[in-house]
Each structure stands twice: as structure tokens, then as C-alpha cells.
């Protein structure tokens, strides 16, 4: 059974993985999406209780 990293690598090389990566790149270039992602990461890192 392939490890988690191997499965991720296989997905990244697949056509679906390439499409997903391109969507992420486009979203990261959008300032509103970037701010949204920063807020989400802040919740995980901030440790809201």
C-alpha cells in the first residue's frame, strides 16, 4: 500500500491534480481569496477556544 506522500504525488501528477493545482494558483492570485485563506489559517494557528 502506497504511503500518504506517494498517493499525494500520484494525485499531483494526474490530470485532475494538475487542474486542482491550477485552480489553487488562480485563487492565490486573487486578493480576496488570499485574505480569506489567511483568516482561515489564522483560526487554525490562533487556537480559538
What does this entry show, briefly?
The protein is an all-alpha fold and 49 residues long. Helix content is 84%, strand content 0%.
What does this structure look like?
Residues 1-34 are annotated as: Disordered. Residues 19-33 have a biased composition (Basic and acidic residues). By secondary structure, this protein is mainly α. It is 84% helix and 0% strand. The protein has three helices and no strands. It has helices at residues 4-13, 15-29, 31-46. Helix 1 (4-13) crosses helix 2. The radius of gyration is 15 Å and the shape is flat. The termini are far apart. The model has no long low-confidence stretch (mean pLDDT 89).
Quick check: average pLDDT? 89
Question: Runs with pLDDT <50, length 5+?
Answer: none
First-to-last CA distance: 38 Å
How would you sum up the global shape? flat
Element-level helix/strand string: HHH
Radius of gyration from the alpha-carbon trace, in angstroms: 15 Å
Compute the number of strand runs.
0
Query: Main beta sheet: strand number and arrangement?
Result: none
Share in helix: over 70%
Strand content: under 5%
Derived from helix and strand composition plus strand pairing, the structural class reads mainly alpha
The number of helices is 3
Region (Disordered): 1-34
Biased composition (Basic and acidic residues): 19-33
Q: Secondary-structure blueprint of this entry?
A:
Blueprint: H1 4-13, H2 15-29, H3 31-46
Main features:
49 residues; mainly alpha
